[in-house]
Write a structure and sequence with these properties.
By secondary structure, this protein is mostly beta strands.
Length: 159
């Protein structure tokens, strides 16, 4: 299960997957001492988790009885996805959970999760693939960024 702002993004028409789940956030801070300088004590400076980046990758697919219906469905679903990924939006909730995606109902729990997780993030860049199959299929990659404190996935219901 993957929802962005409450919208299911693992349907037959819009399917996104999390890439980079479980990776560490980048840190800020630096070492205060210069290694190998005479008279300096070697040691690391303080580090604080700062920004967590991950990607959402997937596709938008149009469905319908003929080529025109598929193209219209693709356009409608692409518009929904673009509204969710608007660069001007404030960070909003992305939820993931163990429920398998609609396209793979008999698969193992999503990402091996046992709990629902969430993160507040915003889209900072996107890459679109070519339009295929008479304007009814397109791949997408979105780079997401969280600056929560601490930045990273949280178990739903925890603080």
């Amino acid at each position: 299960m993957l929802r962005i702002q409450g919208t299911d993004c693992q349907t037959v028409n819009i399917h996104l997957d999390v890439v980079g789940y479980g990776e560490s956030a980048s840190v800020r801070g630096e070492d205060l001492e210069l290694p190998t300088v005479a008279g300096r004590v070697l040691g690391p400076g303080p580090r604080i988790k700062d920004v967590y980046r991950f990607e959402l990758e997937g596709y938008v697919r149009g469905t319908g009885a003929d080529r025109d219906e598929k193209a219209e469905s693709w356009r409608e679903n692409t518009d929904v996805l673009m509204a969710l990924m608007d660069f001007e939006l404030d960070p909003d909730t992305i939820e993931i959970g163990p429920e398998p995606p609609a396209n793979f109902p008999n698969s193992a729990p999503y990402l091996g999760l046992t709990d629902d997780m969430f993160i507040n993030a915003r889209c900072v860049s996107m890459v679109r693939g070519p339009l295929l199959d008479h304007m009814s299929f397109q791949s997408w990659s979105f780079q997401m960024e969280s600056i929560d404190s601490p930045p990273g996935w949280q178990v739903s219901g925890s603080s």
